[in-house]
Design brief:
- The chain has 261 residues and is an alpha/beta fold.
- It folds into two domains: 14-91 and 190-260, Rossmann fold (3-Layer(aba) Sandwich), CATH 3.40.50.300; 95-167.
- It has eight helices and nine strands.
- It has helices spanning 54-62, 96-101, 107-123, 128-157, 174-187, 204-214, 228-234, 252-260; strands at residues 16-25, 28-38, 43-47, 69-74, 81-84, 192-196, 220-224, 237-241, 247-251.
- The strands form two sheets. A six-stranded mixed sheet has the order 5-6-7-3-8-9, with helices on both faces. Strands 2-1-4 form a three-stranded antiparallel sheet, covered by helices on one side.
- α6 (204-214) links the parallel β6 and β7 (220-224).
- Residues 1-12 have low confidence and may be disordered.
- Keywords: ATP-binding, Nucleotide-binding.
- GO terms for molecular function: ATP binding; ATP hydrolysis activity.
Length: 261
C-alpha cells in the first residue's frame, strides 16, 4: 500500500475495513484486491481516472452491489451508513417536507395519531391496548419533536431553512437538490458518510454551504472527488486509484501538490 517517497498514515482502531475486494463485469476487471480501513472521525478521498472502479467500490461498501471476493467489515456491525450517490433522483411532484419525512417521523402525523388515541381512550379508559397505544403515540411524538428540531438545524446548516417545506423539489437548483439529499441522509443519524462526487455541478454558494454543513459531521467520511480544492479543505488523506485498480495511500497535502503541478 505504501507509495515510494510518501508517508503512510497509521491508525489504531478501524470503524470499517475493506479487505481484498475484487469485482469484474464479464471479463473486465474493475477492482483488484482493494484493501484499506478508516477510523472514527477520519475523512478520506478517493481519486483516480474515470472508469477505474471508484463508484463500484462505493456501491459495494454501501451494500448496493456485491463483490466477487473479499469483504467489508464494520465495527460495530450495526453502524448506520449514509450514501450520497451520483445522479440524485426524487419522486415526481415531491416536496421538501415530503422528502425529509422519508427519513424522520412526521410531527403532524404523530400529533394526529395521539389525538385519535386520546379520543378512543376517553371513550374506553380501561382498555389496556389503548393505554399501551397511548404510551407508544406519546413516545413517537416526543421523538418527532426532537427530530423536528434536528431537521431545522440541518436545513439551517445547509442554508435552506427559509425555503417553505411545501416547495416542489423540481423547482430547486442543482446545488439545492444535492444539499437537500444530504440533509435527508443526515436525519437518519449515520455514523459513516459515503459521498460520490458531492461537489459536481455546485455553484460557489452551494459548495460553501455544503462544506460548512459537512464540517460539523463528527462521523467518518469517504468521498470520491476530483475537485482539488474540496480535497484540500476536506480530506486528511487520499487513496489514489491507478488504471489497474491498485490504491496507494497518500497524505492529502501531498496529493494537492501533485494535482497542482
Amino acid at each position: 500500500r505504501a507509495f515510494p517517497g510518501f508517508f503512510v498514515l497509521r491508525r489504531q482502531v478501524d470503524v470499517f475495513t475493506v479487505q481484498n475486494l475484487t469485482k469484474s463485469y464479464g471479463l473486465n476487471p474493475v477492482l483488484k484486491k482493494i484493501s484499506f480501513s478508516l477510523n472514527q472521525g477520519e475523512r478520506a478521498a478517493l481519486v483516480g481516472p474515470n472508469g477505474c472502479g471508484k463508484s463500484t467500490l462505493m456501491d459495494i461498501i454501501a451494500g448496493v452491489q456485491k463483490a466477487d471476493s473479499g469483504h467489508v467489515a464494520f465495527t460495530p456491525s450495526y453502524l448506520r451508513i449514509g450514501y450520497l450517490r451520483q445522479g440524485i433522483s426524487f419522486a415526481p411532484g415531491e416536496t421538501i417536507g415530503a422528502y425529509l419525512n422519508r427519513f424522520a417521523s412526521n410531527l403532524k402525523e404523530c400529533l394526529e395519531r395521539l389525538e385519535n388515541v386520546c379520543e378512543a381512550l376517553a371513550a374506553s379508559p380501561d382498555e389496556v391496548l389503548l393505554v399501551n397505544e397511548y404510551d407508544r403515540a406519546l413516545k413517537n411524538l416526543d421523538r418527532a419533536q426532537q427530530m423536528e428540531g434536528t431537521r431545522l438545524d440541518i436545513l439551517s446548516g445547509f442554508q435552506m431553512e427559509d425555503i417553505p417545506q411545501d416547495t416542489l423539489i423540481e423547482s430547486l437548483s442543482g446545488g439545492q437538490k444535492v444539499r437537500l439529499a444530504l440533509a435527508g441522509i443526515l436525519l437518519e443519524g449515520p455514523h459513516v458518510l459515503l459521498l460520490d462526487e458531492p461537489t459536481n455541478h455546485l455553484d460557489l454558494a452551494s459548495q460553501e454551504a455544503f462544506e460548512s454543513a459537512l464540517s460539523t459531521f463528527e462521523g467518518t467520511i469517504l468521498a470520491i472527488a476530483h475537485d482539488r480544492y474540496f480535497i484540500d479543505r476536506f480530506a486528511q488523506f487520499v487513496w489514489v486509484f491507478s488504471d489497474d485498480g491498485i490504491s496507494v495511500e497518500l497524505m492529502a497535502e501531498t496529493v494537492h501538490k501533485i494535482m497542482s503541478s
